């Protein structure tokens, strides 16, 4: 794999790695502080690949800060170099595992949108645990999204889509499913217009997309209480009690 085709890549001030993160024992890390204007709206892309969505959309939304997270060093370098050359000061790319960043670092209610486009399907059952969407990651996405925030998902993979639908149903107390609305940077006929979408479109693959809109924390708490009271109603009597 040589995304750069032998060309020298320079991540400049755009590409950051784990050394830019504080120790997670020291508490949450507010990734908005990576930007010159940390009060601007904040969006996160998980698995940015070659950075096509970021370079297309960030130029149309200069008042929004975009953090791309990419764990493959080669793609992270390529995307960072691309953003640096275009002088997009509202984009940063972090070389790390996005699920760990959410679990250990990101604080509550900081992001307006989380983008997840053409995430790896990990088709073998024993690899399903590597898929980005899990019950646990959805809880973190809910926590990190600001009120009314959105998780936007697109895939070409039928079995991964089923997984997404099952997870959305099981976590209906956290998110409402809404139709996906394409970003302004998508060209005619495109859903988002990422690299993988363009490659798969040439192969004639169909795409599935949804938006999960964050529900208020109260509905999540209410549902947890209802579940635990249902559990205690159906629990067998405690034989140790008098
Ligand atoms: C199939 S590619 C899609 C890239 C891009 N979103 C697109 O549509 O062209 C999936 C990308 O997600 C990255 N990725 C997968 N899991 C990740 C994780 N947990 N954290 C960060 N990046 C991840 C992979 O390295 C890969 O570059």
Quick synopsis:
This protein has 242 residues and is α/β, with parallel strands linked by helices. 32% of the residues lie in helices and 20% in strands.
Written description of the protein model:
The chain is of the alpha/beta class and 242 residues long. It has a single domain (15-24, 37-226), classed as Rossmann fold, CATH 3.40.50.150. 32% of the residues lie in helices and 20% in strands. The chain contains 7 helices and 8 strands; from the N terminus they run E-E-H-E-H-E-H-E-H-E-H-E-H-E-H. It has helices at residues 52-58, 73-85, 98-105, 135-144, 158-170, 195-202, 217-234, and strands at 15-17, 41-46, 64-69, 91-95, 111-117, 145-155, 175-178, 208-214. An 8-stranded mixed sheet has the order 1-4-3-2-5-6-8-7, sandwiched between helices. Helix 2 (73-85) links the parallel strand 3 and strand 4. The N and C termini lie far apart (68 Å).
């Amino acid at each position: 794999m040589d995304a750069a085709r032998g060309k020298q890549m320079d991540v400049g001030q755009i590409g950051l790695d784990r050394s830019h993160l504080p120790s997670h024992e020291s508490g949450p890390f507010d990734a908005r502080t990576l930007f010159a204007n940390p009060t601007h709206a904040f969006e996160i892309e998980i698995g940015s690949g070659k950075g096509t969505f970021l370079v297309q959309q960030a130029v149309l939304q200069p008042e929004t800060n975009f953090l791309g997270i990419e764990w493959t060093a080669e793609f992270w370098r390529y995307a960072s170099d691309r953003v640096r050359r275009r002088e997009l000061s509202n984009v940063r790319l972090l070389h790390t595992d996005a699920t760990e960043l959410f679990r250990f670092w990101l604080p509550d209610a900081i992001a307006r949108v989380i983008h997840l486009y053409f995430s790896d399907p990990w088709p073998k059952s024993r690899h399903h645990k590597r898929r980005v969407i899990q019950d646990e990651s959805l809880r973190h996405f809910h926590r990190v999204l600001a009120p009314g925030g959105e998780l936007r998902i697109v895939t070409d993979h039928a079995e991964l889509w089923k997984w997404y639908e099952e997870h959305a149903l099981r976590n209906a107390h956290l998110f409402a499913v809404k139709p996906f609305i394409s970003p302004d940077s998508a060209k005619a006929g495109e859903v988002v217009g990422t690299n993988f979408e363009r490659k798969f479109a040439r192969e004639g693959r169909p795409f599935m997309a949804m938006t999960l809109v964050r529900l208020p924390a109260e509905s999540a708490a209410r549902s947890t209480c209802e579940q635990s009271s249902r559990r205690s109603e159906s629990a067998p009597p405690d034989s140790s009690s008098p």
